[in-house]
Amino acid sequence: MKKMLVWVMFVVLAGVLCAQSVVDVAAKTKKENEGKKPAKVYTNQDMSSSKGHVSSSTLPKAKEPDAAGGEAAPTEEDINKEWEEKLANKRQEIEDLQRKVEIGNLDTQKARNEYFSNPVGTYSNTELKERWDTTYKNWQDTQEKLAKAKQEYQDLETQARKAGVPAKTRRKSAEAAPKD
User: Fold this and answer.
1) CA–CA separation, 104 vs 135, rounded Å?
2) Which residues fall within 8 angstroms of residue 139, CB to CB, at 6 or more apart?
3) Is position 149 within any domain?
């Protein structure tokens, strides 16, 4: 029983001491903030009465045509469609190059097989070897073009992100993007 009484007194005393320190901290904070100006809180009413256009988007909003007959600025939707089209075109180029690489690989294998299947002779050493070398070089060139196109696609995605194109638009392109 004595142990329990000691624990209860300990808890009560600790609670009192903590309460006093919280009160002290609150009083100190109140003193520090007395001399400062309160922060301005902007409401929707403040924003509607402001002069000029306020926008939180990084993309330009559509503007009315000028009285002089000038064209309106592109809308966010137009800009997104433009980026989506750019990404789709680059994606299609990559798919075409991937097909060419596959075909080039098959042509190179076929030329190599023809070269090794013929007995050694002038025909084998001249025409078949030249065909094999040519198809191999074309296949390597196409692989380099494919690697360059993939890098350009990644750069284009980065540019779109930096231009403020929404992730949804970029994701549409990425979903249909060719897999490595």
Assistant:
1) 7
2) 101, 104, 105, 107, 108
3) yes
